[in-house]
Amino acid sequence: MPSNESLAPSSQPFKIPLEGALTDTVSAMVEKEMESDTPPLRDLGRFTTTKFDDATTELVRKANIRNQACVEEYPSIARFQQRCVSILASLWNAPPTGYFGIATTGSSEAVLLGGLTMKRQWQMKSPNSPNPRPNVIIGANAHICVNKFADYFDVEARIVPVSDRTGFTIDAKAVRQNLDDNTVGVFLTLGTTYTGHYDPIHSVSDMLDDYERQTGNSIPIHVDAASGGFVAPFSSNNNSFIWDFRLPRVQSINSSGHKYGQAPMAVGWMIWREKERIPQDLLLESSYLRGSHTNFSLSFSRSGGPVAGQYYNLYRLGMRGYREAAQRARERAQWLSTRLHETGYFACLSDHSPPIASLGPKDRSPLCHNKGCTDALAIPIVVFTFSDRFRELYPQVRLPAVSDAMHDLKLSIPSYTLGGWGAQGQNIDVIRVVVRDEMTTELLEEVFSGLRDVVESLIR
Known about the structure:
Blueprint: H1 23-34, H2 54-63, H3 75-91, E1 100-104, H4 106-125, E2 135-139, H5 144-152, E3 156-160, H6 172-177, E4 183-189, H7 201-215, E5 221-224, E6 250-256, E7 268-272, E8 284-286, E9 293-295, H8 305-343, E10 346-348, E11 381-386, H9 388-393, H10 399-408, E12 415-418, E13 428-434, H11 441-458
Parallel strand pairs: 2-3, 2-4, 4-5, 5-6
Antiparallel strand pairs: 1-7, 6-7, 8-9, 10-11, 11-13, 12-13
Helix pairs in contact: 2-8, 3-8, 4-5, 8-11, 10-11
Family: Belongs to the group II decarboxylase family.
Enzyme class: lyase
Keywords: Decarboxylase, Lyase, Pyridoxal phosphate
């Protein structure tokens, strides 16, 4: 299987040819090599959107050569960006005025900027701290980009364990045990990459309010809603599950437009409750282009294509379209979860499976607390492992072998290990299927049949 190591220089490095070649020849050569790739639609582990209508493709083609940094030359892209920010600020219940938002190159850049803001705020508030190295609270279920923030910006990462016992989400009491005067902030996840669950953001916010009353130390929350930011606002439980700027403790929120926002790669969105929360020395003014431009980013020149695609989709789909897409994805996740349970081979960790009477208690989804789970507090992904009964009967069968066999069928489904996440601290091997809007019921039926047939071939 390919890995990042395959990107290292080869023993016989390629060199640019002395002479060029015919367009058709080179194009055919490149396309021939790409034929070995997994078809993007059949890459079932990815969160990013893979299929677009013709209008999106054409708009992105035209906007791709427009540079987001050149706001005077391409004012349409700047207007699209600010309108998208305004729409998302409303969806996430930001104050009507005073908020600040930007487009980013995905959620990773947004998370780094959110963390950098919190660190700089702490430095300004505690210039004479005897401990010059701050810390940040991160759940073990956080995306790797949150750990990148800590590593890249010299912040101690205090990792709060998650497990079956905590519902695979961060625990407010465990967060409280890790706080001190040098804590710059708490990162919480709305739709974890590993199991899809939403962290209990409201509970952590309440705990931080109580902590401030006791100590006088105000600690902000950043919500990494890379996937959930375009799912939760369109769910029926969005009024009861409070996760966004309705909580004063939430300082900033990010999301990925190219995931459930259905925009082309790569675009993310970052919104702060108040622009005043961003230290002025982080807002850099550039004037060597026509006009002047305030910039807060980790990059500069970027294509306007993804922003145009996001703007188009927000208006093309509207509230109803996004609500229907979210509902379709949830229902398909529930369908696949149910079918997997019914085999007796698998048990789901994700929260989209109704309790199934024909299975033993250990083999039911332990996290499905509402009837039907259609509006579970999770993004529409299906994460599953072998059932207890299956492991007892076939201890020689390993879950990664299922993933490898599915890859041979040109269906890429990742397997990974949740280290120490079991109820007794044991490791849990899992497989993940991300249910995207462009995934048809026919494709999911093929996925289910493939998984069932692969397992049955492994136990013969």
